[in-house]
Design a protein that fits this description.
101 residues, 2 domains, single chain, SH3 type barrels
């Protein structure tokens, strides 16, 4: 398999796999900006540290309090909720939680 730099892939026809060639180039540029020593850095969620108490804002658990357990890919977070007699880990959109004050 021959690997070419991302610059070459960016300007090739996408054959319907991506919304548009320009969008694909923008995604590649955004990833390059987040690259550090060959790795892509995930954005950090400010103010949330593992064990911090959070309030769920959306979905079936809206209004419940839980403990922040970490960040996942695709702008998702893990929250521990006290459900069914124990702690259950749920994965939510990062916009669906806020730091409880």
């Amino acid at each position: 398999m021959v690997r070419r730099p991302l610059e070459h892939r960016c300007h090739q026809p996408d054959h319907g796999r991506y919304p548009a060639g320009a969008r694909r180039c923008q995604i590649i540029d955004d990833l390059r900006k987040r690259e550090r020593n060959g790795l892509i850095e995930l954005p950090q969620r400010s103010g949330l540290k593992p064990g911090a108490q959070v309030r769920i804002l959306q979905g079936p658990f809206a209004g419940h309090l839980g403990l922040y357990a970490g960040q996942r890919a695709h702008e998702r977070v893990l929250v521990l909720l006290a459900l069914l007699g124990g702690q259950q880990r749920v994965e939510l959109a990062k916009d669906a939680v806020e730091l409880a004050r």
